[in-house]
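Sequence in, structure out. Go.
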Amino acid sequence: MNLHQLTLAALNDHRLFTILDLAGTFAFAISGAVAARDRGLDWFGVVVIAFTVACGGGVLRDLCIGAVPPAGLTDWRYLAVAMTAAWMTVAAGRLVARLAHPVILFDSLGLGLFAVTGAQKAIIYGHGAEVAVLLGVVTAVGGGVTRDVLLTRVPVILQREIYALAALVGASIEVAGERLGWLSSGRTWVALMACFALRYLSLRYKWNLPRPSGSQDNDG
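Output:
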């Protein structure tokens, strides 16, 4: 592969990363906006929660890898995408509500997108496989944890639901595929869909991680 081909490949990878990162921002922003609306927050609260959920994990990732100032705070596109998602949720609430379990759908989609892009960015900045997988998980779950804390709910990651595990699977596939030389676009979609499918199906069919023996079940 000559220099021209390498340059084109790098540009294509960068475009794919940017598109996926913005898509994840949009998905998580809708998830946060719907959750905030359901908790009875005003429009300003909805916007704040949407932006925090959409960019919280990415900001934490960028701080960990030294990509400062974080893209979520300096790139206008992230704010614009989050604001658009929040506005859509407020203005077209009925349309969003027609989707089956909108929070679950968009949260699952955002989880997969951010698990992949978090791992990708860590690799781009020269970090090893372990760090890339870990930051993929942090990017994916950071926004959801922030949302639940701000809305005074027990974070999903601390419950039995398969959440962080799904992000771990997606990030691991992305990193393993990169190490094995898989085509970047191919491994990205495989990782994304594996994370999304595991998370969504676990909620649909109520798959849960086991609890330690003797723990109390507060589901009822």
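Check: The two ends are 60 Å apart (CA to CA). Confidence is low (pLDDT under 50) at residues 1-12.
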